[in-house]
């Protein structure tokens, strides 16, 4: 019998160089609102986030979107559900302002959308069932991931890195 040799170690993949915290800068948010109303003709077409919200059509196909759908509370008519949504929105907003997410500021287009302005038909069309939430929309304009609860920023950063890898793979496939 021959002696069993140990397997050679697997080569480690070279990680993409992350910018240092000094190179990272604040995230620039684009405030948007719905640009279309859902009509029977629009229902026949596939949903495209870039085309159906104001100011996003110029970014179509360039970068993925990180869409924060928040809930703004009216102090006058703040019922219990309204206050709960506003409190949860504040927690998610705090999570999105974390320093560790600033390294991804240039990788995506960061969009804020007021949940009060979103009509039910358009929300149903884009599968936005809970407000507040964070949507990750790929370069085709399709929803890729939804985060409905506040989580740790480092965990969300891992999700963003997976999303970036997916968009890069999708970009290569679409070029062919």
Radius of gyration: 20 Å
The largest sheet is: 5 strands, mixed
Low-confidence stretches: none
Please state the overall shape, judged from the principal axes of the Cα atoms.
globular
| Helical residue percent band | 25-40%
Ends: how far apart? 51 Å
Helix and strand succession?
Answer: EHHEHEHEEH
Integer count of domains: 1
Strand order of the largest sheet: 1-3-2-4-5
Alpha-beta content class = alpha/beta
Write down the overall mean pLDDT: 83
SS element count, helices: 5
The total count of strands amounts to: 5
What is the strand content?
A: 5-15%
Provide a descriptive summary of the structure in words:
- There is one protein chain.
- The chain is α/β, with parallel strands linked by helices.
- It has a single domain (29-175), classed as 3-Layer(aba) Sandwich (Glutaredoxin).
- Helix content is 31%, strand content 15%.
- It is built from five helices and five strands, in the order E-H-H-E-H-E-H-E-E-H.
- It has helices at residues 40-44, 49-52, 80-96, 120-125, 153-175; strands at 29-32, 65-70, 109-114, 133-137, 143-147.
- It has a five-stranded mixed beta sheet, covered by helices on one side.
- Helix 3 links the parallel strand 2 (65-70) and strand 3 (109-114).
- The protein is globular.
């Amino acid at each position: 019998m021959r002696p069993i040799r140990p397997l050679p170690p697997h080569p480690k993949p070279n990680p993409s160089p992350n910018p240092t915290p000094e190179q990272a800068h604040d995230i620039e948010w684009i405030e948007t609102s719905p640009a279309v109303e859902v009509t029977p003709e629009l229902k026949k077409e596939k949903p495209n986030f870039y085309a159906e919200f104001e100011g996003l059509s110029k970014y179509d196909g360039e970068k993925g979107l990180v869409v924060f759908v928040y809930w703004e509370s009216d102090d006058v008519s703040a019922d219990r559900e309204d206050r709960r949504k506003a409190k949860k929105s504040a927690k998610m907003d705090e999570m999105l302002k974390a320093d560790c997410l600033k390294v991804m500021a240039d990788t995506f287009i960061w969009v804020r959308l007021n949940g009060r302005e979103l009509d039910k038909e358009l929300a149903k069309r884009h599968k936005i069932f809970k407000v507040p939430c964070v949507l990750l929309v790929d370069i085709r304009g399709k929803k890729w991931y939804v985060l409905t609860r506040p989580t740790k920023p480092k965990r969300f950063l891992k999700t963003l890195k997976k999303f970036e890898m997916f968009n890069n793979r999708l970009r290569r496939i679409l070029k062919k």
